[in-house]
Amino acid sequence: MDYDFTKQYMNPKRTGNVIRDLNPMSKVNLMLVLGLSPFIVQNYYYGFGMVILFVLFSAAAGCFRSFFSLYWKVLLLFGVFLFVVKAAFAPGEHVLFRLWGICVSTESIQSGLNIVSLVLAFSGAFILFVKTTPMDEFTYALEKKGVSHMVSFVILSSFQTITDLKQNAQVIMESQKARGIETEGNLLKRAKAYIPVMGPLVLNAISSTEEKSIAMDARAFSAPVAHTFLSELPEVSIGEKAVVILFDLAFVGLVTGRIVLWLI
Amino acid sequence: MAYIELNEVTYTYPLMKEPALQNISCSLELGKFYGVIGENAGGKTTFCNLLRGLIPHFYNGKLLGDMTINGEDIRKIDVDILSTKMGYIFQNPFTQISGVRKTVFEEIALGLENLGVPKAQMIEKVIEVAKLLKIEELLLNDPNRLSGGQRQRVAFASIIAMDSDIFVIDEPTSQLDPEGTERIFEIIHMLKEQGKTIILVEHKVDLIAEYADEVLVFQKGRLLKKGDARTVLSDLELLEHGTMLPQAVILERELRLNGIVLPKVPVTTEECIDLLRKGDVGYESN
Amino acid sequence: MKKFNKLTIFLIPIGIAVNVVGGQLAVLLKLPVFLDSIGTFVVGALCGGVPGALVGLGCGLINAISLPTLLPYTIIGVLFGFLGSFLAKKQMFSKFWKAPVNGVIIAIISTCIAVPITAILYGGFVGTGASVIVTTLMAAGWDVLPATFVSELSSELIDKIICLIIIFFVLKAMPARFVVKLPNGKHFIKEEQ
């Protein structure tokens, strides 16, 4: 057996990609600042500019495909339909088109573009964060900030439990089918199939927590000792810190600018 | 010297009328291998929970009598610290995997991370344990996708890596096939060779006969017998209480009933074969 | 999170997963309801408001990964956690007839919070089947707030009544020796010794 792979643990994890290698805390910070800035700027050119920026970032981080596999749904649902609804129903003076209750005006199109740019920009920032930040790196960064390792456990365990329960649900469904319980057909039949699957699933999952807690206790889960980490992330560089602070300052500037404009 | 001491311990789970353990008095020493046997719901698992301090710290209920671990009163002991000294493994291989680590290597390291072991030492230890338990080929696998038997071995590795002196092991093989069972017993045997203290609950009496120094028999919440493995396991009276005895003991009884007498009662299969091979057999006419 | 009951810590991920998988199963069976808050109420009822709220929060964040526009509604999930605990303390999970009553109460509360979010933030558009009702009503001349209210309330009522009935049975089927170990256990166990 070759134990070369253990060498990776000796050095902090790096991928070589500038965006991916940002510290998860920097990513959260940048996501919030960039994702929320269109709400302050209130200009849909800026909002759509951000959308394009996030798409470019995803490509630069080498995760365009997985980013877009989620983002296209938002683009379609909110970029197209939300715009249509807004354009059709928002009030406005300069009517362009009227049919039954529908009334399209220059103002309604404006308000449609505004809201769509906000929703798309924030969603883009959020998905980009999720796609460039592995959860275990995020929880590591949280622990380094002094958050309890139990929070890490809860976060990571949630994802694994979803996978496990989904698998169990499939197994139970198969066996229910074998016993003649129909999972297709009319609504009543399908509704009836829900309970025999969910019931045992929920009860088993809940009652397994007792053993799980004992098992984790045996792994010194609550031992009163400072933890060490097998995989570590690099220390945040001064350059990275500076960039994040710069963005934060710009954001604060935007907010004050907005407030000042209000007051005048 | 006695490490764990129980004096007239009686314990009742919450909401239960009948106690799960009644008037248990015994002492356990370091470095010995204790086999715990007896009928189902006889109090074996409750006994383990007591040794691990889960009673009274996790399960409430009513605890009477005195119990000390290394001189410390069980009621005052800090279970979080106790958990670092006493390894605990039980039957369900699925609930013993943390679900928060992506490879078996990282899974085994988890307990060491929690103990604050320095990284280089951690890596060394995980490799050592993996070699010992012959699970090197699993190290890069996802622990959440292993078979029951593989998971149980990973669970053992994770606990063994933490280097406790005492292992409480509750029916580790009840959900495994014969091959898996054999591998687990190899591991337990190895722990014994290393001088660890082992408290093992197990239905397979033949394996207990082979490895245990002492045997404790539980029945209906009482400690029916405790003593040297050979003496306890050749006690035919236990059969009347519904406790299984080793095959060799049963065979000896059958032979004797048919007028074939062995010089002594064998408790393991090897011992039985040995006696028969030597031909040291007496015949009695009925 | 230090002073939490140990079992509670392990129940939070289970609650989150039950929500997510319950919702996915409803989609898979093409049921016209969400059924994605069972875990929040169960954990809230058994372990207390804060753990329940954490389940709601976690579930909301995970749902937001596939559709970030759901993020603002997370606040409702958080509230459900506290509601679950509150209802348990008021013995509202003790009898079957109380389940639909709970369902109605919860549906009204959640609608009152969801409507402003949907109407103000998304102009009545939620991206689910309910959007069709909203747009139809709006095309018929309704204002955005009442249109959203009617559509949300109708779908919430069906969803929460069914949800709470399922939750009633789940809580009823929980073994007493397990429930007694949980922070809210005393509200479920009848005779104390």
TrEMBL record, chain A:
Where does the signal sequence lie? none
What InterPro entries does this protein's entry cite?
A: ABC/ECF_trnsptr_transmembrane, ECF_transporter_component
The cellular component terms of Gene Ontology attached to this UniProt record, alphabetical and capped at eight, are: plasma membrane
Location in the cell: Membrane
Q: Which UniProt keywords apply?
A: Cell membrane, Membrane, Transmembrane, Transmembrane helix
Q: Name one Pfam family in it.
A: CbiQ
- Location (main, coarse): membrane
TM segment ranges: 44-63, 70-89, 109-130, 242-263
Q: How does it sit in the membrane?
A: Multi-pass membrane protein
User: Mind telling me what this protein is named?
Assistant: Energy-coupling factor transporter transmembrane protein EcfT
TrEMBL record, chain B:
Tell me, what is one Gene Ontology molecular-function annotation carried by this entry? Answer: ATPase-coupled transmembrane transporter activity
- Subcellular compartments: Cell membrane
Which membrane topology term applies here?
Peripheral membrane protein
Q: Which InterPro entries does this one have? A: AAA+_ATPase (IPR003593), ABC_transporter-like_ATP-bd (IPR003439), ABC_transporter-like_CS (IPR017871), ABC_transpr_CbiO/EcfA_su (IPR015856), ECF_ABC_transporter_ATP-bd (IPR050095), P-loop_NTPase (IPR027417)
What do the Gene Ontology cellular component annotations say? ATP-binding cassette (ABC) transporter complex
Q: Using the UniProt record, give the first listed, main subcellular location.
A: membrane
Task: Read off the Pfam families from this record.
Answer: ABC_tran
Question: What positions does the domain ABC transporter occupy?
Answer: 4-245
Q: Which family does it belong to?
A: Belongs to the ABC transporter superfamily.
Q: Which PANTHER family match?
A: HEAVY METAL TRANSPORTER (PTHR43553)
Q: In its UniProt entry, what is this protein called?
A: ABC transporter ATP-binding protein
Per the UniProt entry, what species is this protein from, by scientific name? Extibacter muris
Automatic annotation (TrEMBL), chain C:
* Transmembrane spans: 6-29, 41-64, 70-88, 100-122, 128-149, 161-180
Q: Which UniProt keywords apply?
A: Membrane, Transmembrane, Transmembrane helix
What name appears for this protein in its UniProt entry?
ECF transporter S component
Phylogenetic lineage? Bacteria, Bacillati, Bacillota, Clostridia, Lachnospirales
